[in-house]
Amino acid sequence: MDKNFFSKQSFTADGLRQLYRSAGKYLAISRKNPEPEVKFHFTYMTLIKIGIYLIAKEGYRIRSRPGHHQMIIEELSEILKNEDVILIGDKMRRSRNMDFYSADGMITETEASKDLEFVEKIYKSL
């Protein structure tokens, strides 16, 4: 793991449970909300929180700095041994940035629903 983004840290079982529950909370919000942008945002944050949880299980904490979401997605892909995580996760990250930083960003219901389905499968596999 890149020491610029990750630092060694041990987590208690309770701390890991809290990280896992936090991802589940965001996933529940995403499932319930009919607004595509809200659904997408909480789905993306669920993916990031799943990454934080699994990285913590490996004994590392993410450092908050520019590019840390990209690094979480890359590490999550490696931990799960699933290339789709980096492909879909990076697409989600770019869409989130366009929606957040640009007036042109537009999240469709189809995009939000497909991303939710993908992240749900990851969460259920934990």
List the helices and strands and how they pair.
Layout: E1 6-8, H1 13-32, H2 36-57, E2 60-62, H3 68-80, H4 83-101, H5 109-124
Antiparallel strand pairs: 1-2
Helix pairs in contact: 1-2, 1-5, 2-3, 2-4, 2-5, 3-4
Short description:
The chain is mainly alpha-helical. The protein has helices spanning 13-32, 36-57, 68-80, 83-101, 109-124; strands at 6-8, 60-62. Strands 1-2 form a two-stranded antiparallel ribbon.
* CA gyration radius, whole angstroms: 14 Å
Which percent range describes the beta-strand content?
Answer: under 5%
Distance between the termini: 21 Å
- In CATH, the topology is named Four Helix Bundle (Hemerythrin (Met), subunit A)
Instruction: Tell me, rounded to a whole number, the average pLDDT.
Output: 95
How many helix segments?
5
